[in-house]
Recover the amino acids of this structure.
């Protein structure tokens, strides 16, 4: 991790948040792998306006920042954000729901369908249940209607 890259990312994220009307936001950027960066953002007031309904604002901000950083750093950068721990908490809840769905599918021999969700959310469920040999997960649907299905292993 280079200090220059970290400082550059922090600066871009901070200035973008200031432009969006969140001057008090605090940004902490880290990298644990080459060209893989993550910024944790703390927004003291009005975080819901940035996160948006079901995290759509967070995804849009992340996409915009990723494009800006790719243009300045290079297309090889992988970048993600979390705002006030929203993603971390959402992932924790999704893992719990995934385990419960797998237990229900196995115990009752039924197929459990989740509501449509983002690719990030679907991946959390698939990864959480990947080691279980008694169930199968798959993503079905297209576009905004794509969702995870959990069913007993045949």
């Amino acid at each position: 991790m280079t200090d220059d890259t970290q400082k550059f990312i922090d600066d871009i994220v901070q200035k973008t948040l200031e432009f969006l009307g969140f001057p008090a936001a605090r940004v902490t950027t880290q990298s644990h792998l080459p060209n893989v960066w993550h910024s944790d953002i703390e927004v003291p007031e009005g975080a819901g306006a940035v996160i948006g309904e079901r995290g759509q604002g967070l995804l849009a901000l992340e996409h915009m920042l990723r494009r800006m950083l790719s243009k300045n750093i290079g297309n090889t950068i992988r970048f993600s954000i979390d705002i006030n721990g929203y993603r971390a908490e959402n992932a924790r809840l999704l893992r719990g729901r995934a385990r419960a769905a797998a237990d229900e599918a196995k115990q009752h021999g039924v197929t459990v369908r989740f509501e449509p969700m983002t690719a990030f959310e679907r991946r959390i469920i698939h990864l959480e249940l990947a080691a279980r040999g008694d169930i199968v997960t798959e993503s079905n649907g297209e576009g905004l209607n794509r969702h995870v299905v959990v069913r007993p292993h045949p």
